[in-house]
Amino acid sequence: MPLEPEAFQKTQRYQARATVAEVLEDLRALAPPERAPEPRPEPASLRARKGRRAGMGLLLASGVLFVALRLMPSGQEGVSALLGFLCFLTLLGGVIVLIVSVVHGQVASMEMSMSSMREERFGESYKEQRRLLLATVLRRFQVDLVQDAPVEVTLDVSTPLAPGKRVHQGKHGTWDREDFADPWLSLQGRFADGTQLHLSVVDQVRVLRRTKTLPGKVRHQNKRSGASLMTVALRVNPGRHPGLTALEERARDAVKLPPGARVKRVRVAEDRVELRVLLEEGWVARGPNAAEPSEVLPGRPPSLNAHKTDASRAVTMMFLSLYQVLNHSSSQGLPGNVRSAS
């Protein structure tokens, strides 16, 4: 099924059953166009401070006019009336400007706190990181997958804080708490040796909010924490992998992961091995050593990702860790039919 850009822009969800080459072509079409950096507008908080200074200046001017009015000798009614009128206007203007600047500052504070909850992770769009992760994994596994056989792909790049992804809402001490679960990636395919692959990623996000009312000021506080649950499952023919269920301990020992990733769960059944890993929030699709020039966004050197968890490397190491267990099992039942895990 050909890619429909308009439908994707509306749903922010890509779903396809196609060959790897066709999916990669679609992912290239979904890449954001390069745009020249736009000049940043003046921060709302700075505008609010300027407004407060202007209001204080008008109040000071009204005070000076009032003092001048009090010191003016009698007999100059016309000048006194003019000074009184100017004093009233500057006083009224100063009060109005101060009120508007205070309200504007509070609104700006709320907008900044909300935007910080949705800001782009590690300086780049989380949408682009998700697209790059899927594209990188497909390219790495392409040579091992059945040639011209379809893979099933679901990629969701909508915000993880969408109301439909909320799984819990309540109180957390003095905070208002919201928990979100975002299953944004699913990939299924079949390798040339018959092994079926299923990769899935679920982002878990917790948002805490509270409001403090202080004299003349309202303070909004927000906290966000999250992680990504990445699962790789391999389904095999039990006849080719006898005694697989007895290798669960070996499977745990075989797991090797990059920094920033830790084992959440290992499952071994007679026809299936599964590894679930927890990635720290803030991962990148590809580390700086593996990034291709076309995948580095303009103005952002690869070194910015030097200390971020390499998600595609984590997937590769999970896959190789599970295949070590399968190799050991198949070598017991079918000597000589061992897949290389190097």
Describe this structure in words.
- With 342 residues, this protein is α+β, with helices and mostly antiparallel strands.
- The chain has 2 domains: 5-32 and 125-333, no CATH class; 44-111.
- Helices cover 39% and strands 27% of the residues.
- The protein has 7 helices and 8 strands.
- Strands 1, 2, 3, 4, 5, 6, 7 and 8 form an 8-stranded antiparallel sheet that branches.
- β4 (175-190) and β5 form a beta hairpin.
- α2 (20-29) packs antiparallel against α5, α3 packs antiparallel against α4 (77-117) and α5 (126-141) packs parallel to α7.
- The longest helix has 41 residues, at 77-117.
- Mean pLDDT is 81; it is low at 113-124, 291-305 and 334-342.
Give the helix level as a range of percent. Answer: 25-40%
Q: How many E strands?
A: 8
Distance linking N and C termini:
35 Å
Estimated radius of gyration: 30 Å
Q: Helical segment tally?
A: 7
In one word, what is the shape? elongated
Secondary-structure element pattern, one letter each:
HEHHHHEEEEEHEEH
Average pLDDT, rounded to a whole number, is 81
- In terms of DSSP E residues, the strand content is 25-35%
- Catalogue the unreliable spans: 113-124, 291-305, 334-342
Largest sheet: 8 strands, antiparallel
Domains, number: 2
